[in-house]
Amino acid sequence: MSQDQTDTRLTRAEARGVRAARELEGHLTWLDSFSGTALGVLSVASGIYTYLGVSSLLDENGAMSVFAAIAYSTAVSVGIFVFWSYMLRLFPAVRTTRARTGLMAAMGLGSLAIVAMSSWLNAAALAGSAAVEQHLAETVQDYQAALERAHEIALTGQALERDVARVRQSFEDLSDLEAEGALSGLAGRGAVFRVLRQKAAELTALEAQIAEQTPLVDTAFTEGNTILSRMRALTVEPGSVEARSVEFSEAAVRLQGLITQLRQLSVAPLVERAAQDLAASVVLPELDSTTAQGRADQSATITSVLEVLAQRAATLERAAQNVQSLQPPTDVTYTPLSAADAVILYARNFVPSWAGAIAIDLLPMVLVFILAITHAAIRQGREGAGVEDTLTLAELRAAVTALREVEAVAGPPTAPPAHTAQPAATPHPEGEEVTPLKGKSA
């Protein structure tokens, strides 16, 4: 293949590159006609949602608060517009790797600043009410778990009534046996009988106290469920979420009081103290047998009764301690949250809203990369071509028109000086031309 053919192929490739570059430039010229307007619309939209987010953070609704929210949202809109305008113009124009790296770092830092000052407020405006309702729903679940746990512990304590009744019944049965003379050998209601009846009476009183707590436990649990139902309704009712949050907070305070009441209604501490006193506080009656052997039998029987009493008391104490060792309900405290705080706390539940809030601020970044790629393609298409090869017909006509205007201003060109006419050559006799010498005769 000859060198001329190779040069022709390269020239055609360059021509194709120039044509592609001109086509891309035409597209960019058309896109530039509305890119600024589109960027302005995005900035204003972000500013509007930022205003809504800031308004949810301000406690007051006066004129000063409105002015502050407008000022902040305006600053955000202007900042977003100016920042992305800089990036759209400068990033595609730079060519060195160092310059692009620096602008890339600046763009990343600016994007983080935009997310910090605008995007999270946009997310609060988009999903703030839903996030607050999510917080209310989560709090209801926590209160329900605490109420059910407190009720379960209270019912477990009430179950100690059966243990107390069993011990009380055992002492009553022993007292009946003693009345027949089956224990000490002395029939009647003597000293041993009175000791057994004394402890049976104490257990009967304890059993009555436990029974009195049962209606209180049931009433507290029923009232708590009623409050929970109202709190669940508040999480989904239409209307302002702020007003619903106020009523929700009042209901939460009442429910917390009921949960505390249920914890106090547990009879396990009462049974534990009664079991400790059961063996420790025994009033021994006077032995009433008429014979020494009878009094000795009564004393031995009372000693055996006290041992049985200590064993039963230990059993009751362990049962009460097992109830008290149960995992108590979790302390739940309702903390009102603003829309912005709620959307951050429950961000995982509102990923689409966060994506939309960030996208409206960072969408121009995609345009920056598109412009950078397009400008790189234009420069590559013009590589190796001279300036005269890249001129379009319109540019060439403009250049010719400008040149004519310059010539018209400069005036017509000066004619060159005239020269003395030279005499014509005469033919030589032998066919050669002879030019006469200047200043000499023939």
UniProtKB/TrEMBL annotation:
Membrane-crossing residue ranges in chain numbering: 29-52, 64-91, 103-121, 354-373
Biased composition (Low complexity): 410-428
Region annotated Disordered, chain positions: 410-442
Coiled-coil positions: none
Signal peptide (residue range): none
Taxonomy, superkingdom: Bacteria
Keywords: Membrane, Transmembrane, Transmembrane helix
Protein name: DUF4407 domain-containing protein
